[in-house]
Amino acid sequence: MPYSAEISRNQPSCFVFLIDRSGSMEDAFGAGDSARTKADGVADAINRLLQNLVIKCAKEDAIRDYYHVSVIGYGDKTGPAFVGSLAGRDMVPISEIGASPARIEERRKKVDDGAGGLVEQSVRFPIWFEPVASGGTPMCQAMGTAAGVLERWLSQYPDCFPPIVINITDGEATDGDPTSAADKLRSLSSSDGNVLLFNLHLSSHRGPSIDFPDNDAGLPDKYARLLFGMSSPLPSHIRSAAQQEGYAVSDGARGFVFNGGMESLIKFLDIGTRPSNLR
Amino acid sequence: MHVYADPFWLPKQGNTEEEYEDACCPRKVTERASCSFRCAVADGATETSFSGLWAGLLVQAFGSGRLTSKRRQETLRSLQGRWLSQVSAHPLPWFAEEKARCGAFSSLLGLELGEASICGGGRWWRACAVGDSCLVQMRGDAILSSFPIRDSRAFNNRPLLLSSNPGRNKEATTMWTSRGGTWESEDAFYLMTDALACWFLTEAEKGQQPWRRLRDPQTGDGTFAELIAELRRNGRMRNDDVTLLRVTVD
To answer: Total structural domains in chain B?
Structure first.
């Protein structure tokens, strides 16, 4: 059965994040505060995803290397996009990522007070990636770069849980239709299944977020529909984990989110017993 | 009443013994003549930190009689305080602090056996459970009870577990289940964490007799490890920490 390989330190899986850094990312981000740009939204999304992944793999005072991670930016240039001591690296074990944020900001967050209310708490927000908005949107080139990184990874870990590529973009590729580059990326595989391509579409279009839809009927524009069409269906065990976490995902749900976040995806990945009362 | 309790445990394949996060009480082979006996197993959740510590605190508290239904809330508060003070005794890196803030989680399965004929009454047992560790009572080749899970399909990777974070626990009536019964001389009780219990119930549902492999007198530490390695190798058992507490009574 595909997508059932155990994720362990001996047999890690990997994530590749493709980050749109084009000039259009300077536009306002639709779903939130108008002072925030899509580039800010992307930076927050990737930093939050990395933080969630590090915390998922944290055990006592160390981090277990269940995942290796690549962050590839595309805009003026296409290539590794970490800042700080990880700059220039195209695949980094999650323990090194946890140990090497460029800096850690303090942010305020409302959390459950355990008595039915909310309390504001200071939380640490590590930064590995800065907002950048410059140049075109060479999405096809970015997918080609990701394919190269993943071919090398898969030759090293041929039986791993298949890599997950998360493309975070406002959707407007400037180097052609990315459909065939996406097809090529999804055609790569380990013995446990094909590479999964998920898309997070951050748009200037105002409206509620749309998480893991099973059709493109409610999507607001052609870019959203194109990205939906390029997105892999969620494998059945990820769907059932999502359902157990309380998300309404149907059988045909795809790895596509419009104007939302993808941190929830991290919860759906199976590295062992996850209590149902852990949120 | 004469009780013989024999614990067996093994970490997840690929992990070290220090990374084992189940717990059991007693931790060593125990032979005792007494009118009551308490034992427990617990399974710390992989996805939470310091869960082995939390599982250990829970089984010790049950073993010492401090988790009876009347004292449960008071004892849990005290254990949560001990967990927090041990975890925060040293500065932690940012990710460890964030993770510890969520709390540790663990199942707990406790069994109390009694013989009131010495102290006045019959031969009884009571068990309580949170989560998916499982007790099976055997008489010869018959399964008399399977608690709290009877059907192997009920196991999944998202059980409701006891947390060291008070805000994560639900109402006691939602979380805790209990069961009681009677025992006869030479009955055996198997307390198992989920991977082993799932294999056991699956085999029993197929008409096999998995208890024979667990009650074999040859099931010393070496052969228990061989059994688990074989079950993992042929895909009949999920790779997880494994704990068995085999209790026989007469």
So the answer is: 1
In total, the C-beta contacts within 8 angstroms joining chain A to chain B are: 102
CB atoms within 10 A of CB B64: 11
Please report, for the domain that includes residue B243, its CATH number: 3.60.40.10
Q: Is B168 on the interface with A (CB under 8 A)?
A: yes
Alpha-carbon distance of B112 to B16, in angstroms, equals: 31
CB A182 within 8 A of CB A165: no
Higher pLDDT, A36 or B48: B48
Distance of CA A190 to the CA centre of its chain: 20
- A114–B95: do the CB atoms touch at under 8 Å? no
What superfamily in CATH does domain A13-268 come from? von Willebrand factor, type A domain (3.40.50.410)
Q: Are A260 and A222 a contacting pair, CB within 8 Å?
A: no
User: In 3D, which of B163, B23, B164 has the Cα closest to residue B80?
Assistant: B164
Strands (E), chain A: 13-20, 58-59, 62-63, 67-74, 78-80, 92-93, 103-112, 118-127, 164-169, 189-190, 193-194, 196-201, 210-211, 256-258
Q: Looking at the complex, does the CB of residue B170 fall below 8 Å from at least one CB of chain A?
A: yes
Distance CA A235, CA A8 (A): 19
pLDDT tens digits for range A32-69: 555 778 888 888 888 998 999 999 999 999 999 999 99
Give this complex's ipTM.
0.85
Look-up: residue for tokens 């949107």? A137
Q: Give backbone dihedrals phi and psi of B183, rounded to 5 degrees, phi first.
A: -130, 160
3-state secondary structure of B186: coil
Structural domain for B209, as ranges: 2-249
H or E stretch covering A251: none
